[in-house]
């Protein structure tokens, strides 16, 4: 396994969150806060270019907030299946909302072993969007099934959305963007069109490890702009390091959010940012305790542009050494193409 994942501290951005544009930054050389923001923005850009993933500290989420989010997630997945199915994700890929039971979503494995019959996608999930989303409406459990869940998770969505904007501002600063190019970058995070996901990977008993179940989530890239993730203390997430060609284990680290680049960010930057291939794996059977592999919870927030937005590479990143690599793409067309292969549209 390759080196540890770099951490970038964004506290200068979160503590002093002001509307900032580099065109109005004449005082940046004299203000220590602006200098810190610039430094953090550049460090973030460097990590997203070299690796496509990074840990973020100074994000402003308290330990208690993160714990509360996991408590709600556990309360949800502890419900009997029949209750969870009162908010069913539809059979097709859209709307990408509500509860998906084990095996309902199947990501095609980008690193698939030929002929393998093993389950590589072993999880249940609940997808939540903005209450303001005009394209996909939420699918909620009846309030009495889990009182407070809707209110809590809607608030969590907004909390993540606030932070997503801060991340984009930091990236804009790090890339030295202003004017229209900065606006194009900011459009990669459309507040009502992101997605909060609660994920639960159930316990895997020792006998099934490697025989029936080969992994928890197959290797894939995300199709939005970028993803921010909290995970519990049970690891398993791995990201491909493009420099070494090896997977890096994203060991849980308290107080940090893991951020990975997704396909729209790669396209906007003409491939300057690496869209991170990642997976959730399981250890070899020999190293697994008799009780099996414990269940795992994670909470990703997928940041994306408005569905109608067309993502075009920034002119400054199209050069003689790096000619245009991607055609402009409407986000909903791209998402529909990718999403179709993830969800079965028929009953099993
Ligand atoms: O659970 C994780 O750590 C990763 C989740 C993920 O990659 C996804 O939901 O696309």
Automatic annotation (TrEMBL):
Keywords: Iron, Metal-binding, Oxidoreductase. It holds the Pfam family DIOX_N. The keyword Hydrolase does not apply. GO terms for molecular function: metal ion binding; oxidoreductase activity. It comes from the Eukaryota. One of its GO terms (biological process) is small molecule biosynthetic process. InterPro entries: DIOX_N (IPR026992), IPNS-like_FE2OG_OXY (IPR044861), IPNS-like_sf (IPR027443), Iron_ascorbate_oxido_reductase (IPR050231), Oxoglu/Fe-dep_dioxygenase_dom (IPR005123). Residues 106-116 have a biased composition (Basic and acidic residues). Residues 192-305 form the Fe2OG dioxygenase domain. The keyword Metal-binding applies. Residues 88-116 are annotated as: Disordered. Belongs to the iron/ascorbate-dependent oxidoreductase family. This is Clavaminate synthase-like protein. It comes from Podospora australis.
């Amino acid at each position: 396994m390759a080196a540890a994942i770099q951490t970038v501290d964004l506290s200068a951005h979160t503590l002093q969150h002001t509307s900032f544009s580099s065109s109005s930054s004449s005082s940046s050389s004299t203000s220590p806060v602006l200098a810190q923001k610039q430094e953090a923005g550049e460090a973030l850009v460097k990590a997203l270019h070299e690796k496509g993933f990074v840990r973020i500290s100074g994000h402003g989420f308290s330990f208690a907030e993160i714990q509360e989010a996991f408590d709600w997630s556990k309360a949800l997945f502890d419900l009997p299946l029949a209750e969870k199915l009162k908010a069913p994700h539809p059979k097709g890929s859209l709307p990408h909302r509500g509860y998906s039971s084990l095996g309902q979503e199947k990501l095609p494995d980008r690193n698939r072993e030929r002929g393998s019959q093993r389950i590589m996608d072993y999880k249940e999930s609940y997808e939540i969007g903005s209450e303001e989303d005009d394209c996909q409406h939420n699918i909620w459990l009846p309030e009495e099934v889990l009182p407070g869940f809707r209110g809590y998770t809607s608030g969590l969505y907004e909390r993540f959305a606030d932070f997503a904007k801060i991340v984009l501002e930091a990236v804009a600063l790090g890339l030295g963007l202003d004017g229209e190019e900065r606006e194009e970058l900011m459009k990669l995070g459309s507040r009502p069109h992101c997605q909060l996901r609660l994920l639960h990977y159930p316990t895997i008993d020792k006998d099934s490890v490697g025989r029936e179940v080969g992994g928890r989530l197959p290797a894939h890239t995300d199709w939005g702009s970028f993803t921010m993730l909290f995970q519990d203390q049970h690891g398993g997430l791995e990201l491909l390091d493009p420099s070494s060609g090896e997977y890096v284990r994203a060991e849980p680290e308290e107080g940090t959010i893991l951020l990975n680049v997704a396909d729209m960010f790669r396209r906007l930057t003409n491939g300057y940012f690496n869209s991170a291939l990642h997976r959730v794996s399981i250890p070899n059977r020999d190293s697994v305790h008799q009780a099996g592999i414990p269940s795992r919870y994670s909470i990703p927030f997928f940041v994306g542009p408005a569905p109608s937005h067309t993502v075009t590479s920034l002119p400054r990143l199209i050069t003689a050494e790096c000619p245009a690599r991607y055609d402009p793409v409407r986000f909903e067309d791209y998402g529909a193409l990718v999403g179709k292969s993830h969800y079965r549209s028929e009953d099993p």
